[in-house]
Design brief:
Layout (H helix, E strand, L loop, with lengths): L3 E6 L4 E8 L3 E9 L1 H5 L6 H22 L9 E7 L3 H18 L3 E5 H7 L14 E6 L4 E8 L2 E7 L5 H11 L6 H9 L23 H14 L16 H26 L4 E5 L6 H11 L4 E2 L11 H12 L19
Parallel strand pairs: 1-4, 4-5, 6-9, 9-10
Antiparallel strand pairs: 1-2, 2-3, 6-7, 7-8
Helix pairs in contact: 2-3, 4-10, 5-6, 5-7, 5-8, 6-8, 8-9
The structure holds 5'-O-[(R)-(carboxyoxy)(hydroxy)phosphoryl]adenosine and zinc ion.
């Protein structure tokens, strides 16, 4: 029988559902973003995120099934994000998945969101050919994690951010520069016209560790702006002063990317990795992609297709497929795991 997984993702501010077939073929991939809702606050408002998920989740799942031209009778299992994420948002997805699993008598698979980001890479053409071990770098709005992937579903956590996640740093600096939310893609766009050597922002290396720290970089950018452009301090928004947005964006991006690029390649050498995987929202950044490919030399570096870098349910279904194949089913009583490290 053909294996089809219905994936559901509500860990943050995207309500998403997807049907995938045999682990790699996406039959549907519906993502409803709450970006507009949260844009007016410049960040995610958890209570509003949960409410927005509740309002739309049934429609999104119905749409995913209908676009895939399947009914629940054609589905083999339900995969849902169990954590990490916002507890209220996670519960909306989990409770909906439980209801469907019980009603349709289907197995339930509780998926780690980070594992989902990793398995977005198996939704690409090279999927089955990769060899282990793999160095994985997950860079998103909520996470910056470096892992050694020894085999399917087998991870060792090497390090992660001690403070801000890479995407969070992009979003905070974007907001400071008066760019729309989320800052990451807009900051990348702004950087295209900028000079990355204009400002010498700090690179925090944390020697002898695979951890990262980006709060110092963020503070350095804030200080630079306040010292050179005190008008920003006087309650005026970045748009109304003559801020060199492009140069600051390019210099900030360059500092952050240099650390990621260097550490991920050093880890791949140390652990004799066969390739590097970079995934999560920030992995959509072209500057980051080119920098890591260049620094890695002959070692292959893979990124998910751009539309699968940010949160989606196809990646949850993809990880679900792997767990389904190996019989890693979950009990219907599973709860949300707002904090759930991978590989510890
Ligand atoms: O993976 P994701 O959708 O959500 C989390 O799991 O956190 O990642 C969203 C993050 C946001 O911080 C967003 O600004 C960032 O990914 N992002 C980017 C780019 N596209 C999305 N950051 C830098 N450059 C981009 N092109
Ligand atoms: Zn994510």
């Amino acid at each position: 029988m053909t294996t089809r997984i219905l994936g559901i993702e509500t860990s943050c501010d995207e309500t998403a559902a997807s049907v995938i077939e045999e682990g790699t073929t996406i039959l549907s991939n519906i993502v409803a973003s709450q970006n507009e809702l949260h844009a007016k606050y410049g960040g995610i408002y958890p209570e509003m995120a949960s409410r927005a998920h509740i309002e739309i989740i049934d429609t999104i799942i119905a749409q995913a099934l209908s676009e895939a031209h399947v009914s629940l009778n054609d589905i083999s299992a339900i995969a849902v994000t169990r954590g990490p994420g916002l507890v209220g948002s996670l519960l909306v997805g989990i409770n909906t998945a439980k209801g469907i699993a019980l009603g349709a008598n289907l197995p339930l698979l509780g998926i780690n969101h980070l594992e989902g980001h990793i398995y977005s890479l198996w939704l690409s053409e090279y999927n089955e050919e990769v060899e282990f071990p793999i160095i994985v770098l997950i860079v998103s709005g909520g996470h910056t994690e470096m892992l050694l992937m020894k085999n399917h579903m087998e991870y060792e956590r090497l390090g992660g951010t001690l403070d801000d996640a890479a995407g969070e740093a992009f979003d905070k600096i974007g907001r400071l520069l008066g760019l729309p939310y989320p800052g990451g893609p807009h900051l990348e766009q702004a950087s295209l016209n900028g000079n990355s050597s204009q400002f010498d922002f700090p690179r925090v290396w944390l020697d002898n560790s695979w951890d990262f720290s980006f709060s110092g970089l963020k503070t350095a950018v804030v200080r630079e702006i306040q010292q050179r452009f005190p008008e920003v301090n006087m309650g005026r928004s970045a748009e109304s002063v003559d801020l060199p947005v492009a140069d600051i964006a390019a210099s900030f991006q360059s500092a952050l990317v240099e650390v990621l690029q260097e550490k991920v390649v050093q880890a791949s050498v140390k652990y004799n990795a066969k390739c590097i995987f970079v995934t999560g929202g920030v992995s959509a950044n072209t500057f980051l992609q080119n920098a890591i490919i260049e620094r890695a030399g002959k070692l292959p570096v893979y990124f998910p297709p751009k539309h699968l870098c940010t949160d989606n349910a196809a990646m949850i279904a993809s990880a679900g497929f792997r767990r389904f194949e190996t019989g890693h089913y979950d009990n219907i009583t599973i709860d949300a795991k707002p904090t759930w490290p991978l590989g510890i």
